[in-house]
Every structure is written in structure tokens, then in C-alpha cells.
Amino acid sequence: MDFYVFVGFIIAQRLTELIIARRNERWMKARGAVEFGSGHYPIMVLLHSAFILTLSFEVLYFHRELSSLWGVLLIGFLFTQAIRVWALRSLGPYWNTKIIVLPGAEVVKKGPYQFIKHPNYVIVTLEIILIPLLFSAYTTAALFTVLNMMILTVRIRAEERALTEWTSYEIELEGNRRFLPLLKKTPTRS
């Protein structure tokens, strides 16, 4: 598998997503949507850009080879791409790389959102692990898994706070766990 073609695909995909996000942002803001978490957004952009650069450096400078498990890892990557498209299509014009909430909008509970609250974050996490492992870039996989989890801790809290404040998110998902809505929280005893 040609590393340059693979990374070119990832870059093209990310740029396409930014175009879609920009279009969706204009659509939502024209209807009164509000942006949240703008302070951490540049850090996320930097993190994802640094991921591609670090991956490229590790693979090319240290002459990393395609993993012997490349077939399994590629299937895992293709699976994440299918779920990514499903998540984006399920949210439609509400999908964005930023936290943009339309006050009073209906909470999306279709597609992968019927099974998990934040499928796109799970997909990104899996990609940050799978892509480097595909090319034996273990340092990139370890480093960016930790960095991604750190930014997602901030990001998910900000997103859930915004959704709770501006939509019926909390009521719609009352009692559901953070990542797996189908698993109800056990009531605590007083």
C-alpha cells in the first residue's frame, strides 16, 4: 500500500469535511445557531494537523514498514469510514467540526446516534490508533491517542453542556450513559 496515496486520501477527506462543515455552519447560523467551545477548536485543528505531520515524519524518516496485520487494520479503517459517513449523513446539515447548536433543534437519535452519543469522536479515536498502526508508526499512535483523549475530555463536556442548555438533549437522553445511551445509569440510593 502506498503511504503517499493513503495520506493523500486522509488529507482530501479532511479538507472535504471542512468544506461541508463550513456550508453547514452558514446554514445553521442563518437560522440562529450559536457556536460554543471556540477556544479549544484551534487546538483540535492543530492536533489533527500535527497528527498527519507526525505520522508522515515517523513513517518516512524512520522507514516504517506496512504492518504484517495490514489487512485487518485496513478493514478496521474502512469500517470507521463507513460509520463516519453514516454519522455525517444522520446529522445532515447539523454536522460540523465545531460545536454549533441551533436553539430548540430536535435531538438526532437516528443512525449511529441511536446506539452511541458521540460516534464521530469514537471514529476519530479509532482512526488515530488504526492509521499509524497500519504503517507501524507506534509512537504516533501512542502519543496522539493520549492527546486526542485529552482534547475530547474538554470537547465532549463543552458539547454536552451546549446541547443541554439549548436543546432538549438532557431530557431526551435522561439517564443514559455518556457514550452508550442504551445502557441506563443505575439509580443511586439516597
Automatic annotation (TrEMBL):
Keywords: Membrane, Transmembrane, Transmembrane helix. It is a multi-pass membrane protein. InterPro entries: ICMT_MeTrfase, Metal_cation-efflux_comp. The chain crosses the membrane at residues 41-62, 69-87, 121-147. This is Isoprenylcysteine carboxyl methyltransferase. It holds the Pfam family ICMT. It is found in: Membrane. It comes from Mesobacillus maritimus.
